[in-house]
């Protein structure tokens, strides 16, 4: 559907991406492609060859003499920057804006941490020279052992975003002990990496004391503040431009070494400098999801009603900067049970900081909870959907406030009908087609709905052209498109008359793309701006005493020949205290497992979601499918393997760090139930960005169990973990 | 990447002479492996001789009913060649199981044979690796060795050869035609092209400096059904954990002739005369296939993360051979 559509009921329609033609014709400019400010020099980062220790000698003379080299930066000549500070910032928002100095001293805190930086006339010259920097290290022990870590774990002061680490309701231990049916299951999830297609990249251009960064970022204000704080300059001297982003998945919420190095070197050389992380460098330097151990205990009556729920996690965290993924927080809102505990624990290791990866919390956490529910259903001889229905709460079970909307049961029932859930093999390992074992699995999905303070500016000229500006980003999800729809519908103009300008920190500040809150936060701010503009027009019409014309353009031309503009803002209201707000869904997966080799292949998958009003049926569906694909990866293949001897991620490229490819995800579909959440925002919409991955992985894992009768508790489920228990079938 | 000079070869003999003249020179064609290695400075040639435009891109019939595949024939073209698909379906299957469409469009027959291992430690210059830096030690032996060899490895190296195409060609008894700097041409049985690591894992083939692969000769196809079965962690764009190339003629229920080769398990494409010996002349039964699989993995040595390959290879062999025997 194109943009030449009517002006009413535009929101919700499956509009094609307005930026699609630019992207498929190569005219969308990404960070590393900018050529602003004259001929750029190219930087290359050299990473540490050890995990932990000190640099005792560094010789960059040969690199400095290498052809085309303009600058070699090490800790001995790096420009002064602000200190990094303690592992935990005093306030939550500072996590995103704190200084992140590079080459700050002779200490190495993790493998591949930048230890030198070379700038040259070409990328190749810089990289070749980086190979000539000679460094001698004094190594220190950097043990990495999940089991030992768990034994020595500590309780952090807070989980991500300030979420409480522990909760307790009722008397879990006694209720669990007394429960007629018990489940106590532990599982591990591996390091995972964001792997966006576009690497972290920045072009830095100084003009006097003004710095402009063309970069790849999800949240411009954080990058602006992070760079300004590192360089110790006021934030208003840093402009961040990020108009197109090749994926982020949570790894582009804060400033990374590309931005800091480019800024420092461009200032030192008085010339633009561009820097990109290599794919290999992204594994160590651009975030990851930490490996973790989870334990779920469920105590139920013989009727399947839960009396006790405990969900605990022990997660690795960087020693230099704490990150406590809120892995078990969603359990506080998912199922009813009078007695419950949740706990987050951490153990430090010597890596770069963990970052907010693809539904932090729910993505790994639901693997534990939803596989446990599957196991419990089998113990109770109940259908997994029926078990969940029996434990459906009538209000948020820990906060004791109503849900704004909650249609989990409807999602499961609609999904069961569409998927043909009644054909699920009743007993595990009971269906074989040729040499392929067939299994079905399902899991619930829940993801919190959030709002971040945001602002927008919208203007209209005498020709009726509408331009809206926000520092929001479109990380590939369709933000340009849905904001076009919102402005068009709010003002009653065709979409073809609306131009959305994003990705520039000079525009009004939004919450950015992250935490699934981008669409609703920036969309609401834009709608308020449009309302304010309409009011201005109405006021001007009234003042002119002439009445309004048939169309907006003629009216504006008459009353304000130079055009009009207005701003709108949105902040969090009391709805978040008064209601528990989440998107819900249900995933269904069918897998085939080769009975000879144990190869697991997804055959089909369906997600049914209820997440308020959908702003664009097409981009929303694509986004859900994208999340489901990540879930397939998490269940079956994604794993950053750390070699404890070296502290490095062994498989640090896309040949060996496996994400799902097209052939791994045939026949994946996502549908939305009609829903309107009037507590969330004027649209009735909820954030959906991450809902698609929540619960997707356990649906696949449960299908593997149903196919094979083998419950693998060490993710990802690869064929080597099935083989020992996979019976030999005669040929 | 180190700076290098570049030369586009005008004819075959000159290309060979150019590379032979300089110890730091390398042939380049598709570059799908060499360029990656150069970017990471695993390979640091000072001079590249581009042979991609040499007239070696034809697939010709041989008088005995086989095919002569020019070294510059692209993997994509070889995979879809009508003669290859009808007479050597095994080879077509193996090619299409390898890499991605884009890579197959660039990669050549000769280059595919000479691609280097994907061992993680070989690709990281901070890690000891006997293949990259002889004498520095093998990081994989005590490290993460899930992809590594269970057959044919040594204390110095357990890296595997990653090619699918070469495994199929090994089962087909291909010969590798080369031109040496002295002007002599020879045809190397494919089983003798790649060397086992022993104490010199840096020496990977029996080619001499400057010797160029000009063609692969496929003898007339043996009788029987051909199957290439690749087992991998994802459905596409992944190296084999284990692969099996099987050609079985079991007309009448008895194995009249059989070829067995494996990939993903050894430093070179692994032909198994042991399995072939067990099968030949025997009844085509589950028991025979199971015995053949056992024989093929006799002496296999697993390490911390790859011991599963032994069971996996046996299971894959057994089923693939049974499948091929169905005719």
Could you please describe the fold and organization of this structure?
The complex is a heterodimer of chains A (731) and B (327). With 731 residues, chain A is an alpha+beta fold. Among the domains of chain A are: 131 residues, Aldehyde oxidase/xanthine dehydrogenase, molybdopterin binding domain (Aldehyde Oxidoreductase, domain 4, 2-Layer Sandwich); 217 residues, Aldehyde oxidase/xanthine dehydrogenase, molybdopterin binding domain (Aldehyde Oxidoreductase, domain 4). In chain A, β16 and β17 form a beta hairpin. Chain B has 327 residues and is α+β, with helices and mostly antiparallel strands. In chain B, α5 runs antiparallel to α8 and α10 crosses α11. The relative contact order of chain B is 0.13. The model of chain B has no long low-confidence stretch (mean pLDDT 97). The chains are: A alpha+beta (731), B alpha+beta (327). At the A-B interface, α4 of A face α11 of B.
Order of strands, widest sheet of chain A: 3-5-1-12-9-10-11
The low-confidence runs of chain B, each spanning 5 or more residues with pLDDT under 50, are: none
The CATH H-level superfamily of the domain at 383-450 and 577-725 in chain A is: Aldehyde oxidase/xanthine dehydrogenase, molybdopterin binding domain
- Beta strand count of chain A: 26
Portion of residues in beta strands of chain A equals 15-25%
Helix content of chain B: 25-40%
Give the oligomer, counting copies of the same chain as homo and different chains as hetero.
heterodimer
Order of helices and strands of chain B: EHEHEEEHHHHHHEEEEEEEHHH
Number of helices of chain B: 11
Strand portion of chain B, in percent?
Answer: 15-25%
The overall pLDDT average of chain A reads: 96
CATH architecture of the domain at 383-450 and 577-725 in chain A: 2-Layer Sandwich
N- to C-terminal distance of chain A: 52 Å
Largest interface: A-B, 39 and 40 residues
The secondary-structure class of chain B comes to: alpha+beta
Radius of gyration of chain A: 27 Å
Question: Count of helices of chain A?
Answer: 20
Major sheet of chain B, described briefly? 5 strands, antiparallel
